[in-house]
Fold:
Amino acid sequence: MTITDDAGRGPDAALGAEPIGSGAPGRTASSPRARRHRLTPGRVAGQVVLYGVLALLALVYIYPFLVQVATSFKSEQEAALDPVSLLPQTFTVAAYERLFLHSDFPLWFANSAIVTICVTLGRVFFVSLAGYALARLRFRGRAVVFAMVVAVMAVPTVVLLIPKFLVLKQIGIYDSYAGMILPLLVDAAGVFIMKNFFESIPVAVEEQARIDGAGTFRVFWSIVLPMARPALITIVILSFQGSWNELSHFIIATQSPGLTTLTKGVASLASGQLSQGTQYPLKLAAAAIMTIPVAVLFFVFQRRIVNTSEGAVKG
Amino acid sequence: MPATVAPAPPHGGLRVRRRGGVRRGEGLAGWVFVLPVIVILGVFLFVPVLMALWVSFSDWTGRGSPFSGGVRFVGLDNYASLTTGGGLATRDFGTALRNNAWYVVLVVPLQTALSLLLAVLVSRRMLRARGFFRTAFYFPSVTSSVAITVLWVFLFSYAGPVNQIIAWLGATGPNWFQDPRGILNLALGGGPGPAWLADSGFLGISWWDWLSGPSVAMLALILMAVFTTSGTFMLLFIAALQNVGEDLTEAGMVDGANGWQRFWRITLPQLRPTLFTVITLGLIGCWQVFDQIYTGTQGGPAKTTVTPAYLSYTAAFQNQEWGQGAAIAFILFLIIIVFTILQRWVLRDRPVSRRRMRPYLPKGVRS
Structure:
């Protein structure tokens, strides 16, 4: 899984080193011709249109988030009178104050954090174990297990709401952390990603370690896992984002207010069960804060996510 | 390793076989490694699906265990009351199917086209600030559906930013999330339908209602889905575009094809596998709309944003009609499978017809 050097190509392209039909690099004659070619009025107009369209689209994609943050710092009155502006006339943190001091928001945040951390750690471990076994170890029934994993990927999660509730009740872990975490611990798509990754790396190092007498788990833990860092990062991103943003599972797995997660809590805020009036600053502040952890994760791994050649995330 | 080269091993044959080779103990290790995954998928996926299948054939009301003695097997009754009963359950199910069908019809083509357009734009070789644009377009995809729905309800509120901007352009925006009128109906003037369409129907919904389009409220949710998913699919298209051969494109240039022709005739056919993935994922995702409805509209106004997934949830958890809720979930499952297969069949690789091949065949073969 190499990170393609997209940025590396950028400067060359910007310098105009790739004109259409340019000959060998040493041929100086092609260079002025290419420059003249680039500066025709039609070309300039094309570039202007391209950047115009891109800038407009970027504005459409970014503006909602800017206005969200801006509104969260407005008073409720101002949010209603002037919803468009990006600069609050009277800057206030009243919405945040209410969220953190006079509501269950901190509890929701803590619950989301607990569940997300447990699910992410568990998934990374279990999914890579299974992916390794399916890619490398020879055991009876391997094909059947893999077929099962693929079949499970096809079952839509929404269809499982009622079934999951039934089974949580039946085994007595409804309305508990166990019921929130255990069903999310394994992700068939993750097993699939890890299996593909392990199949793509050479087997020689492992064989050497085995000949030297290391056990299967030892080989997996100290030799294979460190090599699998890129794939593991993909799993971490997917698990973190998936469990932090999960809503439907928590709706059917819990009922007590003490186990409410951010998604469930903010959804109840949004549908007005806990408040009167529109309260847009409060709701938008809550939504903004719950976006921060995934946004941080996104910006940390941004280069990997948006520049990969094989679309590792969601692949 | 001088020890292992010792002449004759003093152990019996069995011992040697077990110790010999680097693959010793693999069978056991393999099962131990996959065990957690099998147990969790089995307990929280496979078993529950079977339990729910039983519930969909029973009259369980949510009290006690669905396997206790008082729960009766009622055959296909739950399925029948949804599809042929003609009562409220049928009408609700028909409404949910109609709402979601329009959602699919609009979201899948729009998100596919937009994500392809974005990918083509940000994959241009001479583009500056490429990273910025990619980040901007992808960012909505990482946010949670709950957060984005909260934001959307604000953006599309009656006095919200969207309607303000519409007002600057000299028009009046609708009261988005309170407006149950179908958009096709509105476009045609908004009157009641002709008798031949209004008097007969399917699943308790008149043909006029089926055809009147998604409600204005649903349209806002459709725009939201396009906004949040286009970034993800853009990444898939970007990855595919990087693998498109430059040679063919350059050959097209030499042959005098303009940019438009090169895109449709050379680039797009090479993107076919990705196109297939994007449409499949889009279809599967679009039939599962739940979070947005639960957070944003709770099915309103006038049930025009109820989807089968949401209806399944309310039927079971709010109305205690567990059999019906489970039956809806299984019908939904079936719909998703059928659509995936259908789509695979429509986009299958077909042999090129003789008529289209003709210009490329050598002279002798023509006629």
Q: What stands out?
A: Chain A has 17 helices and no strands. Residues 34-92 of chain A form one domain. Residues 1-36, 308-315 of chain A have pLDDT under 50 and may be disordered.
